[in-house]
Design a protein that fits this description.
Rossmann fold; DUF218 domain-containing protein; Cell_Envelope_Assoc; 5 strands; DUF218; about 230 residues; alpha/beta; five-stranded parallel β-sheet
């Protein structure tokens, strides 16, 4: 009888263990499903935001910043400078091996234009670096409004990083459209899906980092305000 009772106890424990495991797996599955749904919804919202980006009809600002990544962006930024959309142009993130003269020739611009109104930045190697380089340039020259020229899918993250560095500056998006998400069937293009998914992931990480840093900053101010005054 004692052996039979022990066997029943072991069987009951096994059933409870299996039941607990099923509950954990079920909850884990629903959590994973919820995260997947949030990711897909966020990605589609990001793609729709990118697709809706349009350059202003009459672009005008104190200055222009172009984030390198192709001569199409630089060509557009130089054309904006020539048209008087800004007083001065910063080309940020230029390869150290590339000279201003090479860029001038590729954009078919005059030497006088580049001498008076174009600055070449060689320090930045990524979007955060672009924002730091541009932020210092804006600060040094006292600009209050800046046209930002970059690819449409790169624009949300670029603006996020620039506003983090220079929150008091007005940044105006001037997207260069390489792929029109409104008219093209981009969902059938695996290379473009990969590119925009990667950019969405980077934008998400940047957004979380910005949110976390702002919460930490707010917490620091709150804690400082509640702390007792130092004794003299």
């Amino acid at each position: 009888m004692a052996e039979r009772g022990k066997w029943r106890d072991r069987a009951a424990r096994r059933r409870r263990s299996r039941s607990l495991l099923r509950k954990i797996l079920r909850r884990g599955f629903f959590v994973l499903l919820a995260f997947l749904a949030i990711f897909v919804a966020g990605f589609l919202h990001f793609a729709d935001t990118v697709a809706s980006l349009q350059p202003p009809n009459v672009p005008k600002a104190d200055a222009i910043v172009v984030l390198t990544g192709g001569f199409q962006r630089i060509d557009q930024a130089v054309e904006l400078l020539k048209s008087g959309a800004g007083q001065r142009l910063l080309i940020s993130g230029v390869n150290p091996a590339t000279t201003g003269s090479q860029i001038r020739r590729n954009t078919q611009s005059s030497a006088d234009l580049f001498k008076c109104c174009v600055d070449i930045g060689h320090e930045a190697v990524d979007t955060i670096g672009n924002a730091t380089e541009a932020g210092q340039w804006i600060h040094d020259r006292g600009y209050r409004s800046v046209l930002v020229v970059t690819n449409n899918y790169h624009m949300p993250r670029s603006l996020l990083e620039l506003r983090r560095v220079r929150p008091d500056t007005k940044f105006i998006a001037y997207p260069v459209v390489n792929s029109d998400l409104k008219t093209s069937n981009w969902l059938r293009n695996p290379l473009f899906i990969k590119a925009i998914l990667l950019e969405f992931a980077k934008y998400s990480v940047a957004s979380v980092r910005e949110f976390a840093s702002s919460r930490l900053a707010n917490g620091s101010r709150l804690d400082a305000s509640r702390s007792p005054p130092a004794e003299e």
